[in-house]
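Field guide to reading this record: the first block holds the primary sequence, the second block holds the structure written as discrete tokens, and the final block holds curator observations. Each block starts with its own label. This record concerns Thymidylate kinase, catalogued under organism Bosea vaviloviae.

BLOCK 1 — SEQUENCE
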Amino acid sequence: MHKQSRHKQSRGFMIALEGVDGSGKSGLARSLSAALRDAGHEVLATHEPGGTEAGAALRKILLASNAYDWTPTAELLLMNASRRQHIDQVILPALQAGKIVLCDRFVGSTIAYQGAGRGLSEALILDLHRLTIEDLWPDLTLVLDLDPKVALERSRSRLQQSQIDEGRFEALDLAFHRRVRQSFLDQAAKLPAPYKVVDADRPPELVEREALSQVSEILAERIP
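BLOCK 2 — STRUCTURE
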């Protein structure tokens, strides 16, 4: 189990959105950002892999459908390299400035995809997170839970319609994505930081309403 972050973020607050591909994280990130800004908060919305110029370059070689055939360990190291750059250049400055950081994917996705999905040891992933990321964890993680079969159909359709070449993980079999989903649920059950599981198999407005309620409740306790 992880400890609280050693980074100083006394005025800021970090929220991570997690879930299988196609669970609705991107849409929720937009609606939550807007609602939190309307409530008077300063919000920085970002995503992984990516969030920086270097991270965007890594995202292309990690997610493109014709990307290199990375070994699981190489993939893990690249994800952490992107995250370190993201933290130094984007996340920590925003937290230190007292902003709410809303991040579409964080270390939970690494545990789910490179861990449960690819078969790497969770202990290895957590050790690497401590060494390279200095054990920074979100203050709140929202897991959007959806049947992977439904989620994959949504995600593949979105990629096709938008002509975005980021289908490397969507091309993997259903068993992989089922392991990923179970990992997110397991993380919510056993890791100590606040986790909230939201049923994503509902109309977007209902999902957004529940997620905003969960976020508002936690923020009321943590931010005066």
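BLOCK 3 — OBSERVATIONS
The chain has eight helices and five strands.
The first strand starts at residue 13 and ends at 19.
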